[in-house]
Amino acid sequence: MRHLIRGRRTGPALVAAAVATATVAACSNGSSGAGPGTSAPPATSSAAAPATTSAPAPKPSPTRTYPLSTAPRTVPAVQEHTPARGPGWSPGPDAGIVIAPGSEALADEARLLAGELQVAYRGEAAAGPGDVQLALGGSGAPESYTLTASGGRVRITGPDEAGVFYGTRTVKQAVRSAGVVPEGVIRDRPAKPQRGLMVDIARKHFTAGWIEARIRELADLKLNQIGLHFSDDQGFRIASDTHPEVVSAQHLTKAEVRRIIALARSLHVTVVPEIDSPGHLGAVLRAHPGLRLLNVQGTPRQGAIDISKPESARLVDELLREYAALFPGAWFHVGADEYQALTVRDPAASYPQLASAAARKYGPSATVRDLAEGWLNDRAAVVRAAGKTAKAWNDGFFRGGTVSADRRIEVEYWTGKEIGARPPEEYLAEGRKVVNLNDEYLYYVLGEPNQFTYPTGRRIYEEWTPRVLRGSTAVPARYDAQILGGTFAVWCDLSGAQTQAQVAAGIRLPLAATSQKLWDARQPALSWERFRALADEVRG
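User: That's the sequence. What structure does it adopt?
Assistant: Structure tokens below.
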């Protein structure tokens, strides 16, 4: 049946052909295939007819039966499927998408599914034969849903809009992969609340259309975040009203950003902006050279801002407030990694102005690290005042010292290779919440510099889990609840190494594998080869 579906027919005609094929196959010789169909039991006869009667006894009509259904074939796989006997549901010519009373908030989800399946959208109405009904309700976990396929109908319920939306993704993929939503009940929810992709749009300009295409891809994979790293040494890629002088020639307009955000919100994807500081500010500092960090010989360090100057904080905070107002999501990434003042042997000797500022602000025992940690806390406070949770890279959190990073800042753990590397268990033992961006598996770095190699979906699928934060060894299970999820990251260190289209093609299977392991961290049921084939079938 699957081979027939992969022809040029689409919509109801495609599905009708698939269901007809399944029915014929199951009617032959008591088939017990995995898909829905029919089988005729051997004929039975009543008591023998009297000898005087020449006409044969009538045979009973065949009774239609169905094998037990199997779980739908989707990426990511559903967590739980209770099988049942029945034909399942297919989007036939009379099918429609309806909304249960009191669930008007699901209109966008219903219209989207109706368009994807090429069936009618009927709004708030009673579910008729062949319909899919969407409903808010229940007390499940956030983003969870229950999908029931029975009697030729489907009902998707969830406690929030996101959960019901993910139920519609299951319907869409089940129809794509097999032509039918199998009979039975699906109870599904993600293992981790944060599941995403981060794109470095600072070093390489990506068009709004490319970003929107990735958002649609994320939504179908039940991933719910996209990070935009839009400020770095090479470029500042979103228009600014407060500081237009820092913006690169190639950039996204605010109208384009609002369009991206609107699409993302409709697909339950949150856009997370990032302005990295106090390092990686080269594009900003080209317009403000007086704020560059100079060492004792007067030599500037690339991308580093002088955090001893009040004007530095004022500039960065104006940008943070401007973009916190533009992006409505719950998070703002404030960077904090690779501050060049901390990569020298003796920061106080090389940068005496920083050492003096640390002592003035935090006391005579404070160090340059304390000043940098205080900078992180101050920037986190700015975005928190705007209603955001701050995120920061793990190498901006230091052990000991006079100043400690605020515990409310989420740690984005990417590497154990930084100077003074701290294992992930240290952050977790401090009670911090961590997001996994393990550079061994989840870093797609254009041009493969610094011994990076392009990650493969197979390695992620077969080896990685959210608890594998550094290298290939998982942290103890007792820390699982503190690991909020994971993010696959695209970095554009050698921006010309790949085109936009090549990046999209290169990350497709790694993203699919990441989605599977963030939705369900258990050992997948399918082999990699079968998963890869399925990922091709359901992509839309």
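The two ends are 19 Å apart (CA to CA).
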